[in-house]
Amino acid sequence: MPDQTTASWILVSSFVILLILRFPVALTLVGSTIITLWYLDLPIIVAAQQMIQGITNYSLLAIPFFILTGQILQEGGLAHRIVAMTNVFVGRIRGGLAMANSVACMIFGGMSGSAVADASAVGSVMIPMMVEKGYDPDYSVGVTISSAIQGVVVPPSHNMVLYSIVAGGVSVGSMFLAGMIPGLILLASLMITGYLIGLKRGYGYGEPVIKSQIPSILVHGLLSFTPAVIIVSAIISGWATATEAGAIAAVYAFILAFLAYREAPLKNMRGVLIRTFRTVLMVFFLIAASQAFGWVMAYLHLPDIITDWFLAVSDQPWIILLMINILLLLLGGPMDMAPMILILTPILLPVCVKLGMDPIQFGIIMIFNSGMGLLTPPVGTVLFVGCAIGKVSVEAGTKAMLPFFYAMIVVLMAITYIPAITMWLPKMFM
């Protein structure tokens, strides 16, 4: 008769071995699931049934629309309009271009929901501009890639939709509200860090914006920012579901980028759709695979075992939460963001709930940690994209990013140990 302890070791060890052999994460999840089912003498078709069940959730339809909106905005060249708008407010401060970079990344990243798209779109505009104005290339890359992480924390982020589904139906609107204050605190910490580094390196002031151009710059910047406003306000007000709001935002972004501004020809829409479909297929395959993997974990009671283990280590909640954050930061290097959310949420959420933490607060902690992992090797997709745009080595980009990374850790600790930072707005409006 199959032993559940042995089956648990088979599930975990096969997962680790397949990852070490550099199998794609989705195939690793499916492979370890099938191996464990075979040992348990359960029908392999269970894996297929669970995978299909994992992608039949109506709320998942919001993810393709969010991704499509981000791709359209990136293709339509709206990033430089957002950069121009932010430069009006902070460009005249010492090191103001770095601050404008951080603000622009928060705005554009919130619309695209992708730190990689944020680093690509804003970085391609800001990094050359900063270098031309006398900023060091490594610093320009460091501030850009660090600021791009804001895109996964501030609403509307499709990662929040993904977490809400994995966590068992947590309100998407509540997640959006919960990310607002942490996003603003993160922005403030990045701007302060950038300002201090700018003082130390002796960066100058930005060039003044011609007053007659300010109204036009603000109008175009606000129009470019509108898709994010549509999504967040429609969901929070209850006027539309996440899926409906995403569809409306995608249509608006298409009209703005391809019909109003026309910076990209309409034929480029084919490339936008291809990139969107590829991303959606990867995300949905991951969701399906994680559903099957999660079913086996639940069958073996692994989440309960891990919860009991964490609670046995210490009776102090702050120590357990610190251990969870350290674990997530370490796993963020070798694991990409979506797999981390899909695999670790069912494991760690029960631990935090037993400690009295709200699933919404844990969701922001999980997403924040996963975003920080995009800056660290060996995966570090945002790090590699930024270094490629800025034409600096990964070592130089990593070193320049570290002061901002330390600031992020301070914000992460605040989010972890001060629940009001994430829970005040959801409790007030939802």
Summarize the structure.
This protein has helices at residues 4-20, 25-39, 45-54, 62-75, 79-90, 96-112, 115-132, 137-148, 150-153, 158-166, 172-201, 214-237, 242-261, 269-299, 302-313, 317-332, 337-354, 359-373, 381-390, 394-417, 420-429. It has 430 residues and is mainly α. It has one domain.
Structural commentary:
It is a single chain. With 430 residues, this protein is mainly alpha-helical. Helix 7 packs parallel to helix 19. The longest helix is centred in the middle third of the chain and has 31 residues. The model has no long low-confidence stretch (mean pLDDT 85).
Q: Tell me, what's the shape?
A: globular
Strand tally, please?
0
Separation of the first and last Cα atoms: 50 Å
Largest sheet: none
Radius of gyration of CA atoms, rounded to a whole number: 22 Å
The percent of residues in helical segments reads: over 70%
Low-pLDDT residue spans: none
Mean pLDDT: 85
